[in-house]
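Issue 218. Parser rejects a valid record. Input:
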Amino acid sequence: MKSRQRALLLFVTVIALSLSVAWLACAADGTAPASPPAQAAAGGQTASHAAVTTEPGGAQEKLGALLPYWSVTPFILILLAMAIVPLVHGHWWEANLNKGVVSFFCSLPILAYLVSLGPLGQEVLIDVLRDYYAFIVLLVALFTISGGIYLDGDLKATPIVNTAFLGIGALLASFIGTTGASILLIRPLIKTNQHRHHNVHIFIFFIFLTANIGGALLPVGDPPLFLGYLYGVPFFWTFFSMWPMWLTTVAILLGVFYFWDTWAYSKEPTAVQKEAAQPRRLRMHGGTNLLLIFSVLLSVIFLKAYSLPDGSHLDLAWMQQPVMILLTVLSFAIDYKAKQRAAQGGHAAYMTPRDRNTFTFGPMIEVAVLFIGIFITMTPAICLLKAHGLETGVTEPWQFYWMSGGLSSFLDNAPTYATYFALGQGVTKGLLVSHPDLPVVMTTTGPIAWKILLAISLGSVFMGANTYIGNAPNFMVKSICEEAKIKMPSFFGYMLYSIGILIPTFLVVMFIYLI
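Output the parser choked on:
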């Protein structure tokens, strides 16, 4: 059996074991999993403490008051494994089966411990697994459907064209996800600049803008923001609250890139400039998948719980994931039908857009097997922070910005967001005692200060670009570039770019918007 198949089998086994144990335990105690929380209304509204009608505590805060601090050890271990093992034993870490083994053994103690705590621990565990299910289905849908879109052509490799390419990538990332936008655009960008000698900086900025910062406008853009949506942050809160910071950061980086690329282009030999300026029209194959991606977005926005005028409730949230899975299957069905028609017409060598993209589920399996472990092991950390957040001494938005950003630079930014989101809610609970008019965002797990949530969101999404391991697409882009014989910088070489370019930009954002 191939390693990919073994990894998938292990992943399915872990999911089945987790769900089975939790459900059986609930049944034995005569309890049932909590019903899905009603989704907050879309928009960017805030509320004062006086307007809060939801009890800010809940099962996670109650559990956090009971948990010992050592229960965060498996969470720390899995994050350290993700950060260190690829650097010291990269070949071993490449196999998804090995990632699955690490994920399984880190999560098993917490899984058993939460079940052993009785109804409270089981309720929290069920909620976590439900969040994981919603999280992974969205990623699979966007990853798979965007993989069915192929861009063919060779544009002029001039500074203005490359700048426009990066700007489009930054915008597209918020709508099809940073992973989807990176997969869609990286190969056409490589083909466009393949004749240039000085081109490494182009792909560094591509990681900055398309694989990270560009995904800040919508919850589907980057995994941390979708976690926030699962926690009850309104769908359009990110857009209405973060677009000024997004626009400021993107504008600064595109400006720096344009001047850098203009200088680099001037260093190219005349023959290379002429060759790089010979365009071939860009064509899109598999455009039907754009409609499917739009349908995924609509399902996230509109399939939720509604309160009807007569006081009754209509809960459509359960339909989100089945609809996304159906759209994903439909994307494959379109390719299958196209191959059938080509074969009947005598074109046995026909390649679908997905084939041309050399699409595989490898990256998605990697995310799935790691994140089931992350979701389970981070549960004690989230509960403890909600119960003891004010005791940390972290209260200012700029502190949340740099702390969440610093951790996102070296660990995956989704669990970083979840950790500091919980801390932010714990801190907000204490701040509301002395500042009852503090602007807050209401979520299904309680209020969180508006500016603290803004700082966490910015830090987690933006600063995932600081290293290759800050966000999943970063390493993927690096690998694709190296396959195309582009000499990408080393881990610390890349950090020289991020320290010199990104950190000053992030300081500007902090002084304008968070102080």
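Fixed in the parser; the record now loads. The first strand starts at residue 150 and ends at 154.
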